[in-house]
Every structure is written in C-alpha cells, then in structure tokens.
C-alpha cells in the first residue's frame, strides 16, 4: 500500500480529537480541522469535524459525504468516527458514505472508557446504553440496538461475534470477505476488550476489499498501533515543554456538558486546584447581549482573565433546558469570554459543541494534535498560534480526575505539589471561591 493516510470524519470537535490523538501518540503527523475543504499539507492523519450532530439526518449525511469527497485521495482510507453512546446522526451518515467507501465495519466499543458491545447492543460499564443518563437525556423511548439503527437507515447488516475475533486470523479474514461478497453493507462487530478490537484492526487493515471503519476512539487506537498501516514513518511534531509557555497567562476551563461525569470532574478541579468558578444561567445565554445581566457576567469573566487568574466557566441548567439548544448556548458562552481570549495560554473545553464554538469565535480552524492526558482527553496547538495549548474532552468522557489532570498538564505542575489543605497552589489560581458562592445565587438549578 503506497502513500497511505487516514481521514477521520467526526460529527463534533472533541470526538474528532479523541479519535485522532491515538495516531499522534504513535508518531504520525496529525491534524484536526473545523473546515472540511482545508488542505492540511503533509499530515498523515486528518480529522474533520463536520459539526453535524444536531443537524437533520439528511443534511448531516450530505455534509459528511461532502467532507469525504473533498479530502479523499490516492491511498487515503476512511474512518467514520461516531459517538460511543450513539448520539447524533451517525447511522444516516454511515448509510450515505457506504456507496462511496464500501463495507462499513461498525465497531463502536471503547473498552478503555467502559464501552463494550455484545450482540449488537452497547453497554456502558456493564449497564445497557438505554438505561444510562446520557441516553435518557437525548434519546428516551428510542432503540439503542446497533443493527436496528443501521437497518433503519437503509443498510443490510451482518453480525460478527466475539468468538470470531478471538479465533484464527485467517478464518476472521475469510468471514469478513464473505460478508463483503454477500451483499451486506454493514458489519456489526461485538467487542469486550482492546484485544478484540486489535484483532479486527489487524485483519481489516490488510484486506483488499473496499471497506471503511465506523467506530469510536477504541478501534482507532488499535489501528494507530499497527506499525505497517503506513509505509513511511513520519514523526509528529513534539510537544513544546510547558516551561516555555507564558505561565503568567490564564487557563480557561469551559464546560458546556451537563452530564454527571462533568459535574464530578468540575468538583475535583475546583476542590483540589482552587480554581474560581462561574456558572452562567441559561437564560442569560439564550438572550445573549440583549440580556440585562450580560455585561455583568462578561465583567466577572474579564476580572479573572485580565488579571491572569485561572477560571472555570460552566453553563447552568434550568427547568427550560433542552439538549437541542446546546449549540446555541455554547456559541453564547464563547461570545461571553471572547473579548478576553488573548489573555489565555491554555484552554480546556469539555463538550464538542463548546470546543468548536470557542475556537471558531477565536478564529481558529485547525489544531495540530500533540499528546493525550488520558483516554479521550487530547492536547493540541492551533496552527499559527504556538503560545496557546488546547485540551478537548467529550462531555460524558473521562475519569473523575480528567479536568484536574488536564489542568495540571497545562500548568506543568505535579499533583504532589498540592497539599490536602489546599495551601500549595500554582500561579494563577485562587484559594477561595467567592465567585462560586455568588454564581449559585444567580444560576438557580445547575447540572
């Protein structure tokens, strides 16, 4: 295989980054872009955020195909990144790509984050997906079965069980080739472990049949680990030591996700690092600059960041909240903090819509990926802006430690530097959180 490269198409920015980061970690030049038509030079791995999660299915499918047509080339292989909890229009997007790219190998498991697939059903740390908070928040009363979702989008499916992945590789190759010849358009793959996904990656990467991969960050990691997937090893640019960054500048943590996971991560960050916190009421964000309290909230943000004080800014929650308004709220949140963006040396953004809104508002349309803090938490730098480091994380992803770990990474401060009493803290943090006390009076019900 000559001039092999990978194109990852994702429906949100944090997903694009957490899928592509495995290739950067394997030494491949890797970039993420918000602009599907942008040429990314010599990057071996390009991840495109199509921003289609909230679109009508037909529009999402059209934009996804346009991204592939704009970026495909000789030797370029396709990876359709989907949310491991099946949010968005992924089935419609896969159905649209299939006539262009061949058999869809659908393997959504991500064992490192507790996502597994058995008999075509997704489990999150052993709990059926349809019983989780994430699914109930956005898809209550809808089916969470992979086969049913793909068939409803118009594709003929076949199933591949775990036993096949754990058997003879030659037999696995023959089984997948037979599916391709049978007229099936999508192969739904069960997986419990990284080893299951590794077996799938090793076999499918070397097959001659027309196929593309459909998965979360789990399968991407196993593909990235294959030394012979690319012909020529191109070392990715190395992370610039954090000591060279302007440590007097502020770190902004933006959290648009309302998941319980994000809530726990914010709690640990706030309690261990003493970062000041502002929880902005949705009613303010819905009205934007027209709201009477907009200027006051912007002044609060500015008071922290202009003084180079690290700050956690979150979207609150009220009784009118609708998950479909996430993009609108994220865009307003980005506008709220945008006047102070130049004061930052670091940005941590939780939630793909939040990350995209902030980068777009700041005029940043691509990132060079550098490293990974933990599964699903990617570190990058904007092309043309080496002084800013950006960390992205999906809202419902990561350990309780994820935001705190990302913060320590950007500050270049070992966790051991923090005493239990909170008396030892890095430059740029506050030891008390009067902002949080004030915000709770303004925000009402929060997530």
Automatic annotation (TrEMBL):
Keyword Signal applies: no
Q: Name one GO molecular function term.
A: kinase activity
SUPFAM superfamilies from the UniProt entry: YgbK-like (SSF142764)
- Return the Low complexity bias intervals: 419-434
Source organism superkingdom: Bacteria
The record's region (Disordered) falls at 415-447
Which UniProt keywords are present, listed alphabetically? ATP-binding, Carbohydrate metabolism, Kinase, Nucleotide-binding, Transferase
- Family matches, as InterPro entries: 4-carb_acid_sugar_kinase_N, 4-carb_acid_sugar_kinase_N_sf, NBD_C, NBD_C_sf
Asked if the record carries the keyword Aminoacyl-tRNA synthetase, the reply is no
Domain (Four-carbon acid sugar kinase N-terminal) spans 6-223
Residue ranges of domain Four-carbon acid sugar kinase nucleotide binding in the record: 252-403
Q: Which family does it belong to?
A: Belongs to the four-carbon acid sugar kinase family.
Q: What is this protein called?
A: Four-carbon acid sugar kinase family protein
